[in-house]
Amino acid sequence: MSATLLNGKELAAKKREQMKSKIEQLAVENITPGLAVILIGDNAASQSYVRGKQKACAEVGIYSELIERPDSITEQELLVEIDRLNEDPAIDGILVQLPIPAHISEQAVIERIAPNKDVDGFHPINIGKMMTGEKTFLPCTPYGVVEMLKEASIDLEGKHAVIVGRSNIVGKPVGQLLLNENATVTYCHSRTKDMRNLTTQADILIVAIGRPKFVTAEDVKEGAVVVDVGINRVDGKLCGDVDFDGVKEKASYLTPVPGGVGPMTITMLLENTIQSAESRK
Ligand SMILES: NC(=O)C1=CN([C@@H]2O[C@H](COP(=O)(O)OP(=O)(O)OC[C@H]3O[C@@H](n4cnc5c(N)ncnc54)[C@H](OP(=O)(O)O)[C@@H]3O)[C@@H](O)[C@H]2O)C=CC1
Ligand SMILES: Nc1nc(=O)c2c([nH]1)NC[C@@H]1CN(c3ccc(C(=O)N[C@@H](CCC(=O)O)C(=O)O)cc3)C=[N+]21
Ligand SMILES: [Mg+2]
């Protein structure tokens, strides 16, 4: 068997088309959704992601503002920038590109963003609402993963979803969203013993660890749905956390890297920004 590819790039393009007409409707009411992105330092990967976000905003008609600051910025200075954006009526969403320098507390920064402008869905209030199933901004990568599975009509109810990775931005929330969809969820991480025994039981396997081609065909059950969140640069080329060529012969569905989860992450950021602008009304 050769897996059906879950084409995130294509679904992202389709969703962005739909967003354009929503934004035209908002324009009638004199609302232009606005996103502020704060980029600290000169990390090449972060710069490239931020460019991707700005390009996507321009494509659908979201106003975007880039605030670039040097590595030497103090935590206090950054918090003041966030306060200003919290008060800015043209800004519906605020994103601080991670990682940030070690001398600044990531948690302090995330908690300073007004929850109703936290389009990343990282604020503890929004995480809490996600856990209780209240409507809120869902974290973009997990939200994008669930949208891709739904688009392919992959039934989640009662399925065993195994998540490899437990970061606050990907692993933990993707498990929570799948639980909200009535999947049975198991988390694996760097201390997990006999991980293969767990991953080979997965109907749905989500991998988000940041280790190139770490998950191989032997880790996967025949017919499983495999979602590769990893983005790794090896010899100048992008690859995921899953050994694509091996796993595609065993999985029923598989996401490519690039062109899988990544474009969906940006798309759900746009979606959250539009949702935020709609609540101005
Ligand atoms: N496509 C997209 O839109 C996005 C892609 N990414 C990519 O996804 C990947 C993960 O990102 P992120 O969640 O931020 O990463 P983190 O580094 O924050 O977390 C990695 C997680 O993987 C676990 N882990 C690491 N090594 C192993 C191992 N050998 N076996 C089992 N578990 C392991 C860690 O365990 P422990 O907790 O025990 O340390 C940790 O929970 C990266 O490649 C990143 O670039 C990230 C965000 C968005
Ligand atoms: N506050 C914050 N929010 C984030 O959402 C956030 C962040 N910080 N820090 C870094 C990670 C990573 N991330 C990606 C987004 C898009 C692609 C993406 O579009 N990838 C393309 C390839 C892009 C390329 O060619 O480099 C693809 O997979 O096809 C990847 C990774 C968001 N993150
Ligand atoms: Mg991280």
Automatic annotation (TrEMBL):
<keyword id="KW-0560">Oxidoreductase</keyword>
<feature type="binding site">
    <location>
        <begin position="165"/>
        <end position="167"/>
    </location>
    <ligand>
        <name>NADP(+)</name>
    </ligand>
</feature>
<comment type="function">
    <text>Catalyzes the oxidation of 5,10-methylenetetrahydrofolate to 5,10-methenyltetrahydrofolate and then the hydrolysis of 5,10-methenyltetrahydrofolate to 10-formyltetrahydrofolate.</text>
</comment>
<keyword id="KW-0378">Hydrolase</keyword>
<feature type="domain" description="Tetrahydrofolate dehydrogenase/cyclohydrolase catalytic">
    <location>
        <begin position="6"/>
        <end position="120"/>
    </location>
</feature>
<keyword id="KW-0368">Histidine biosynthesis</keyword>
<comment type="similarity">
    <text>Belongs to the tetrahydrofolate dehydrogenase/cyclohydrolase family.</text>
</comment>
<dbReference type="InterPro" id="IPR020631">
    <property type="entry name" value="THF_DH/CycHdrlase_NAD-bd_dom"/>
</dbReference>
<dbReference type="GO" id="GO:0006164">
    <property type="term" value="P:purine nucleotide biosynthetic process"/>
</dbReference>
<keyword id="KW-0486">Methionine biosynthesis</keyword>
<dbReference type="Pfam" id="PF00763">
    <property type="entry name" value="THF_DHG_CYH"/>
</dbReference>
<keyword id="KW-0028">Amino-acid biosynthesis</keyword>
<dbReference type="GO" id="GO:0005829">
    <property type="term" value="C:cytosol"/>
</dbReference>
<dbReference type="InterPro" id="IPR020630">
    <property type="entry name" value="THF_DH/CycHdrlase_cat_dom"/>
</dbReference>
<dbReference type="GO" id="GO:0035999">
    <property type="term" value="P:tetrahydrofolate interconversion"/>
</dbReference>
<dbReference type="GO" id="GO:0004477">
    <property type="term" value="F:methenyltetrahydrofolate cyclohydrolase activity"/>
</dbReference>
<dbReference type="GO" id="GO:0009086">
    <property type="term" value="P:methionine biosynthetic process"/>
</dbReference>
<keyword id="KW-0554">One-carbon metabolism</keyword>
<dbReference type="InterPro" id="IPR046346">
    <property type="entry name" value="Aminoacid_DH-like_N_sf"/>
</dbReference>
<feature type="binding site">
    <location>
        <position position="231"/>
    </location>
    <ligand>
        <name>NADP(+)</name>
    </ligand>
</feature>
<dbReference type="GO" id="GO:0000105">
    <property type="term" value="P:L-histidine biosynthetic process"/>
</dbReference>
<dbReference type="Pfam" id="PF02882">
    <property type="entry name" value="THF_DHG_CYH_C"/>
</dbReference>
<dbReference type="InterPro" id="IPR036291">
    <property type="entry name" value="NAD(P)-bd_dom_sf"/>
</dbReference>
<protein>
    <recommendedName>
        <fullName>Bifunctional protein FolD</fullName>
        <ecNumber>1.5.1.5</ecNumber>
        <ecNumber>3.5.4.9</ecNumber>
    </recommendedName>
</protein>
<keyword id="KW-0658">Purine biosynthesis</keyword>
<comment type="subunit">
    <text>Homodimer.</text>
</comment>
<feature type="domain" description="Tetrahydrofolate dehydrogenase/cyclohydrolase NAD(P)-binding">
    <location>
        <begin position="139"/>
        <end position="280"/>
    </location>
</feature>
<dbReference type="GO" id="GO:0004488">
    <property type="term" value="F:methylenetetrahydrofolate dehydrogenase (NADP+) activity"/>
</dbReference>
<dbReference type="InterPro" id="IPR020867">
    <property type="entry name" value="THF_DH/CycHdrlase_CS"/>
</dbReference>
<dbReference type="InterPro" id="IPR000672">
    <property type="entry name" value="THF_DH/CycHdrlase"/>
</dbReference>
<keyword id="KW-0521">NADP</keyword>
<comment type="pathway">
    <text>One-carbon metabolism; tetrahydrofolate interconversion.</text>
</comment>
<keyword id="KW-0511">Multifunctional enzyme</keyword>
